[in-house]
Q: What sequence folds into this?
């Protein structure tokens, strides 16, 4: 049996990195299990319970024995509800046949990448990026072209950068607004300027809009699919995880031209088949029910965002921008790189995240997981009490 080791693994597996966020969460979970008082700011998950009316609809589905296979693309009632949502909230017209329901937003995006990306096709990804984008491209045997941004540009790329990244092999451009990990939100004007660069090219756009309901202040969510000349090349990906605090229910969706949806459905049919039947009923209830629950959570997140922005900028070595959306703050810790803190040399963001977790019991995700070493992602999807505790511990951690 000793001969059966990693040499038998496929090149595909060897080329894919384990999710850094899940790796960190695993370490944090072990520490909590071992009795440590860890403040976990690593998880991209609302701390609110799933609203009662959504849970009730799932219980009703179970009691009615709605526990069998559904159509691969999702139940028609849910796809109609998503169609109505897109029209009402985003001014986007999609038929139920142009929508696929998947096991979370992650699968919806992965389906599309596997559908469109051939070997050595290039996929343009702005950095900082969500950890899974590059690895999905690697699984599809594609190549990532990373466009870097930083805190000085509010983590936004320019049309000129996008233009310079395009080659004859470019197949997909991934846009995530609001952004994980930065909270950055592109304005309508900025999105239109980016789309102008590729409007006459055979390049598809995956628009990851999972945080669309978590935008604060005056800026409004704008989907590139609202640009009529671009709609045939846009794939809108979204889900119920963040807006309705339904992360564990695993329901996401994609909306796109029917030929793309059919092809994505072909892949999904051989990988997982339909999303959980009970979760689909719960998601239907989320779309059809009282939307004030979304606003209630959003209002609380806005308060936490303001608190974290004010307090983090007071900490030596930290510098952060003011995020317009999502529930993350992504401060630069470059002022700490090269320093020695309480006997620990900080060479990079992973060193600092590890130091912060092991010595001060605050869980974060290092920026290199998002293609941005020298930064740290902190989620403020936690109680104000825990955020205050985390800030106090971080202050202590950076005292010389």
A:
């Amino acid at each position: 049996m000793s001969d059966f080791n990693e040499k038998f693994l496929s090149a595909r597996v060897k080329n894919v990195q384990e999710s850094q966020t899940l790796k960190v969460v695993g370490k944090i979970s072990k520490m909590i299990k071992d009795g440590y008082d860890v403040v976990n700011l690593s998880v991209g998950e609302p701390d609110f319970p799933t609203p009662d009316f959504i849970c009730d609809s799932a219980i009703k589905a179970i009691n009615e024995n709605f526990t069998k296979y559904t159509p691969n693309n999702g139940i028609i009632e849910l796809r109609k509800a998503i169609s109505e949502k897109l029209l009402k909230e985003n001014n986007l017209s999609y038929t139920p046949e142009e929508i696929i329901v998947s096991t979370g937003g992650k699968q919806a995006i992965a389906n599309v990448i596997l559908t469109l990306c051939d070997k050595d096709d290039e996929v343009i990804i702005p950095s900082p990026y969500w950890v899974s984008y590059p690895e999905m491209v690697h699984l599809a045997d594609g190549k990532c072209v990373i466009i870097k941004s930083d805190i000085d540009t509010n983590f936004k790329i320019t049309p000129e950068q996008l233009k310079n990244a395009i080659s004859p092999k470019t197949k997909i451009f991934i846009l995530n607004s609001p952004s994980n990990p930065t909270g950055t939100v592109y304005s309508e004007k900025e999105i239109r300027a980016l789309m102008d660069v590729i409007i006459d090219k055979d390049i598809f756009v995956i628009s990851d809009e999972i945080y669309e309901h978590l935008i604060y202040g005056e800026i409004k969510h704008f989907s590139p699919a609202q640009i009529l000349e671009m709609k045939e090349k846009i794939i809108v990906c979204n889900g119920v995880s963040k807006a309705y605090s339904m992360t564990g229910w695993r329901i996401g969706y994609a909306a796109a031209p029917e030929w793309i949806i059919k092809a994505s459905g072909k892949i999904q049919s051989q990988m997982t088949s339909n999303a959980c039947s009970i979760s689909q009923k719960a998601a239907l209830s989320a779309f059809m029910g009282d939307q004030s629950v979304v606003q209630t959570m959003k209002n609380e997140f806005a308060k936490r965002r303001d608190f974290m922005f004010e307090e983090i900028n007071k900490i030596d070595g930290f510098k952060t921008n003011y995020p317009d959306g999502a529930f993350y703050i992504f401060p630069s810790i470059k002022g700490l790189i090269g320093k020695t803190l309480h006997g620990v040399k900080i060479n990079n963001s992973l060193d600092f995240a590890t130091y912060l977790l092991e010595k001060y019991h605050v869980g974060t995700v290092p920026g290199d997981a998002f293609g941005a070493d020298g930064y740290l992602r902190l989620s403020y999807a936690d109680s104000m009490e825990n955020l205050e505790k985390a800030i106090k511990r971080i202050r202590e951690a950076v005292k010389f």
